[in-house]
UniProtKB/TrEMBL annotation:
Native organism: Phyllobacterium zundukense
Biased composition (Polar residues): 1-14
Name of this chain's protein: Twin-arginine translocation pathway signal
Chain intervals for the UniProt region annotation (Disordered): 1-20
Domain of life: Bacteria
Amino acid sequence: MVTIFNRNPVSQDTPDPALRKGMSRRDVLKRGGTASLGAILIISGSSIIHPQFAWGLETSNLKPETMATLIQLARDIYPHDHIPDRFYAIAVKPYDAKAGEDPKQKKMIEDGITDLDKRVGKGGYLGLGWEDDRLAILRKIEDTPFFQTVRGGLVTGLYNQEEVWPLFGYEGESFSKGGYIARGFSDIEWL
């Protein structure tokens, strides 16, 4: 079974009825290059696939729908529009490994995602196209152990990725390169 999540925010005012209700697999195939595939995640079997940017994430302990929701949750907790989804996927991948080692951890994450989906109703958390709507739901659960666990793990999971550092303008540690003083710390060209 393949599930396609259209992550573009679409309102009821959108003229295209197919976009108002979400896109089916058939819609994606019919539209070809006209659909914005940059906003679609495909869940197939135990994998999450992002077709435009050619990355995938295989799950072994958590459901793929849970992992897809965790990716969106990570993006909502630490929003950076210029950071691709693949870095968020890498940041949430350790939750899948921890779920295999600790049944309590797995239950907490699966139950937390189920609770999020129930709070939203039809379409679940991934079905909410507007960031403000998702943030309103997150504010209601921000004191729960589930939210605090995910938020706490994302700090290191996202920001410790060396591939992300240049996207923030951070060059990494400086000690091995002679320290900051020898690398332009005292260059004051504007004075």
